[in-house]
Amino acid sequence: HPSVGDGEVTRTVCFTVGSYICNWNQEIRVKNCTGYFVYQLWPSPYTNAVYCTATDSALGDPCVTHTVLDQPWRSTDCSRTECRDGTWMDDGNLAEGWYRFNSSGGWKIPETVVPGYHCSG
């Protein structure tokens, strides 16, 4: 994750779905807003792939103009059977834009590989 002084940076996230560990990659943009991060996200590249969180805009400043994603099932600590009754979630319809994670599941995208069958996948 970037420091405040780095401004907006490009990073690569990987998606894990079921036993396919880090099988799909996608570039995103990240900005440190002093105390939290915002992310410019695009629809996920595969069905049942979601952006996860870990506990550790073209218009205006994305630290001010962003959408909050607050679903607890995004947590890497959440298996799909524990948090979604076995239902797979999907970010395929996510609108392009800047997002902030803010939930009991965490507040930033993990910097390590997500285990299979966690974070809805």
Describe it.
The protein has 121 residues and is mostly beta strands. The protein has one helix at 80-83, and strands at 8-17, 20-32, 37-41, 67-69, 97-101. The protein has a five-stranded mixed sheet with strand order 1-2-3-5-4, with no helix packed on it. A hairpin with a 2-residue loop joins strand 1 and strand 2 (20-32). It is globular and about 40 Å long. The model has no long low-confidence stretch (mean pLDDT 83).
What's the overall geometry? globular
What is the number of helical segments per DSSP (H or I, 4+ residues)?
1
Q: Spans with pLDDT under 50 lasting ≥5 residues?
A: none
Order of helices and strands: EEEEHE
> If strands are numbered along the chain, what order do they take across the biggest sheet?
1-2-3-5-4
Whole-angstrom Rg: 14 Å
Question: Average pLDDT value?
Answer: 83
State the end-to-end CA separation: 23 Å
Helix content range = under 10%
Structural class: mainly beta
Fraction of residues in β-strands: 25-35%
Secondary structure: number of strands: 5
Strand count, sense and barrel status of the largest sheet are: 5 strands, mixed
